[in-house]
UniProtKB/TrEMBL annotation:
Lineage, top ranks: Bacteria, Bacillati, Actinomycetota, Actinomycetes, Micromonosporales
PANTHER family per record: ARABINOSE-BINDING PROTEIN-RELATED, DIACETYLCHITOBIOSE BINDING PROTEIN DASA
Protein name: Extracellular solute-binding protein
Gene3D superfamilies, alphabetized: Periplasmic binding protein-like II
InterPro entries cross-referenced by the UniProt entry: Bact_solute-bd_prot1, SBP
Pfam families to which the protein is assigned, alphabetical: SBP_bac_8 (PF13416)
Length: 396
């Protein structure tokens, strides 16, 4: 790469990203590049709503796939060639593909959501016997949401510092929204009907809100403090041994990889109850305002090679490449690498719709009311009306 201005990477604040970028850039002699990591709300405000993608401050953007349809349609991202398309599973290529068929980013950090659980608790003979005596069936990773609720109730022991489960309740339009969509889809519901109207008036939507409201406010198997936790914070608390299980991004199992972690060697992964897995991931993209798009694209290609992907995993991120998933160094880090290919075959993502930021805001407000105010169906009804009006006055 030629000697020019310093390339600036902007992304999300996360220890794994900071460690991986620091290590990776150190492995690229002659490359003058640095990074700035922002809280996810600030990153969204700067990129989706602001001018970071166009004003020349950023040469590379690390973005969640949720934002891509809006950014691609508005011309805020430039297409980037992918020299190794088969290196990634199809589910890790499609969300950065525009309507024009061009690729607008390369996967850097992977989901999807899985069921993460404490293997030491689930394998304990006393826990198994006690659970079976109370609920009438064996203790094992749940295959439906009724079993999930039973197990959360069984393990919820706040007086001993153990909660039934962890949820990320902070209203940042991400995990709180993803949780709702996972429940909606697993119950056969759809956010937007085939006629382009809101699907929030369905029985499935009602069941989804009832279930989440129940975890927070009826069974109370979630630490109330989790209302202020985002996805990363929820993963940190699980890795600290504060809950028996959770549905969350598979990468958070890697937080227990440190031998000093209280949950080291005690975390297992299984499919999400209901067999619907949420898929969202982080990609490296070239913003329209990049000062030298070719240099930006070349940097992205060098940061997403097999060697660099392994370094991402070793630093606490999640590898995205198939050859990395098969690498013994990566497989030894966390249990989810054994199931990623399978999990991605049954994954869904948020609607590939340029209106997603506005849609997400509607669902975010609904879930904020569910978590913070104990609202249930009233919040759902309000969201249905707001979403239906939004969809009627706009077109995808």
């Amino acid at each position: 790469m030629n000697d020019g201005h310093r390339l600036e990477i902007f992304g999300r604040a996360f220890d794994g990203f900071e460690r991986s970028l620091t290590d990776q850039l150190a492995q690229l002699p002659g490359v003058d590049a640095g990074y700035q990591l922002l809280e996810i709300e600030d990153l969204q405000r700067e990129v989706v709503e602001g001018s970071l993608a166009t004003d020349g401050r950023a040469d590379v953007l690390m973005l969640i796939t949720d934002w891509l349809p809006s950014l691609i349609e508005s011309g805020k991202l430039l297409p980037i060639g992918n020299p190794e398309p088969d290196a990634w599973a199809p589910a890790l290529r499609e969300l950065q593909t525009g309507k024009d068929g061009q690729t607008y980013g390369i996967a850097y950090h992977d989901g999807p959501m899985l069921f993460l659980y404490r293997t030491d608790l689930y394998a304990d003979p006393k826990e198994q016997q006690g659970f079976a005596d109370r609920f009438g069936y064996p203790l094992a990773p749940p295959t439906d949401w009724t079993q999930f609720r039973d197990q959360a109730v069984w393990f919820d022991r706040p007086s001993t510092g153990l909660r039934g489960t962890v949820l990320a309740g902070y209203p940042d339009e991400h995990n709180n929204v993803y949780d709702f969509l996972t429940h909606l889809w697993s119950r056969g519901g759809e956010l937007i009907t085939s006629g382009g109207r809101s699907g929030l008036d369905s029985a499935a939507a009602g069941e989804a809100v009832d279930f989440l409201h129940g975890l927070w406010h009826v069974d109370r198997v979630v630490d109330p403090a989790a209302a202020a936790w985002d996805s990363v914070s929820s993963g940190v608390h699980f890795a600290a041994g504060e809950a028996a299980m959770m549905v969350n991004w598979c990468g958070f199992a890697a937080m227990s990889a440190d031998p000093g972690s209280p949950t080291h060697g005690k975390v297992g992964c299984a499919p999400t109850p209901g067999a619907v897995t949420m898929n969202a991931y982080w990609v490296l993209t070239v913003p329209a305002g990049a000062r030298d798009p070719e240099r930006s694209a070349e940097l992205i290609r060098r940061l997403t090679t097999h060697d660099m992907d392994v370094r991402t995993a070793l630093a606490g991120g999640s590898a995205t490449r198939r050859d990395s998933w098969a690498d013994p160094r990566v497989r030894a880090l966390a249990p989810y690498y054994d199931v990623l290919e399978q999990a991605h075959q049954h994954s869904r993502s948020v609607p590939v719709d340029p209106r997603w930021p506005q849609i997400a805001a509607v669902l975010n407000e609904m879930m904020r009311a569910v978590v913070e105010e104990g609202a249930g169906r009233t919040a759902l009804d309000k969201a249905h009306g707001t979403l239906d009006a939004l969809l009627l006055r706009t077109k995808a």
